[in-house]
Specification:
The protein is α/β, with parallel strands linked by helices and about 190 residues long. The protein contains 6 helices and 10 strands; from the N terminus they run ββαβαααββαβαββββ. An 8-stranded mixed sheet has the order 5-4-3-6-1-7-10-9. Strands 2-8 form a two-stranded antiparallel ribbon. A hairpin with a 5-residue loop joins strand 9 and strand 10. Helix 1 (about 30-40) packs parallel to helix 4 (about 70-80). The longest helix is centred in the first third of the chain and has 11 residues, at about 30-40. It is globular.
């Protein structure tokens, strides 16, 4: 059975993007890039909502990303990707398929087949929906030492209480802290 995890970074006041969907406030320096490189070695299938997908597809294939963060860019571009959208008609970023409709049902079925594990990047609406369905096996949250004052919280609209157990922490010299959790109420 495949595992479904979340990797997200948030501000210290709990937002994963600001009011304009901007994430440039996230500190992605040497240690954080190495951490991303190591995480991408697992070659999980990457999952995105449409907004996050469009942002990622607009950055990782660019000459700037390939020059400044070459290993992460190569792995992001090479990875299999699924974008969840009822409006997106075409996915131009290589190795991407579009899923629409009852996406929780799609993921529930996919998790019950052999193959690569799955990781949601960003995509708060998808995280919330799958958390409410009890589909997520692990949460990895990077907390940046910056307060945005306003934005979109990761679990905005969560309907069911989500109890988590802390399983690991890591502190970076930049002040970023990564917290890894397992849910206590997985289905």
């Amino acid at each position: 059975m495949r595992k479904l995890s979340v990797f997200n970074f948030i501000s210290i006041d709990g937002y994963y993007k600001d009011l304009h969907n901007d994430i440039s406030w996230h500190r992605h320096g040497g240690e954080e890039s190495e951490y991303s490189e190591q995480s991408l070695e697992a070659e999980n299938i990457l999952l995105f909502g449409r907004i996050t997908y469009e942002m990622m597809a607009g950055f990782w294939p660019t000459a700037e990303a390939i020059k400044n963060i070459p290993v992460v860019a190569e792995r992001m571009n090479r990875s299999e990707k699924i974008v969840f959208s009822n409006t997106l008609q075409k996915a131009d970023w290589n190795n991407t398929i579009i899923m629409s409709g009852a996406i929780a049902d799609h993921i529930r079925k996919l998790k019950n087949t052999p193959g690569k594990d799955l990781t949601i990047l960003g995509s708060g609406n998808i995280v919330t929906q799958f958390a409410d369905e009890g589909l997520i096996d692990g949460y990895e949250i990077m907390i940046d030492p910056v307060a945005l004052g306003a934005g979109t919280p990761v679990f905005q609209g969560l309907k069911n209480k989500l109890d988590l157990k802390l399983i690991n922490t890591r502190t970076f010299s930049s002040g970023i802290i990564t917290l890894s959790y397992e849910p206590l109420n997985i289905k």
